[in-house]
Design brief:
The chain is an alpha+beta fold. The protein is built from one helix and ten strands. It has two domains: 39 residues; 129 residues, Sandwich (Ctag/Cox11 (Pfam 04442)).
Length: 221
Amino acid sequence: MANQPNQFNQRQPFPGEKMTSPLRGLRRDAMVAATCGFVVALMVGAAYAAVPFYNWFCRTTGFNGTTQVAISAPSGAPLDRKVTVRFDSNVAGGLPWKFEPEQNEVEVRIGEVKTVFYRVTNRSARTTTGQAAYNVAPLTVGSYFEKINCFCFTEQTMEPGETRDMPVVFYVDPSIVKDSENDTLNTITLSYTFYPLRESAMKPLASGEAKNSGRGEEGEL
């Protein structure tokens, strides 16, 4: 007859050895599993929270070339010091648009409010929607490049073949002259990239209603 496990054939502990009961082992495993699950949940939550925090941090400090948002022009007169602002344009794959600045660069005085235009054309035979992101270079200029108005982060829906001129109103904060890291600064590059968004639903036009064309609505940051 096969031996049946019972209290008499279980291994007895050696002198000084502590035996761990199966129940205690199960409790320990459950605690380890619960701790690991908590850590994973905490990491996932932190990852989601990091995105808005990172965006806020960049906007506040100008980190990674993120420009600032101004509601009005600087109160003082522009300085004599000048810088050249160059304009760059890019279109991500999947968006059939032609996108370019109307001028490649301008020379501005620090503290001077300047308006420039980018022109975008939908080269496809369908309505498409895009949205622009931006940055400036060198990265140390991000906290001093102030935009009063621009089209970035505003959805732009373009009819087939439509062309639109979109303004950017900006100035370079005069406090930049107090930053020794920018003592030799003479050129700033403002770069935009348009990314495709969802397909826009075609809206029927009322009788006699004209399609929008030319200069579009100015999206405010």
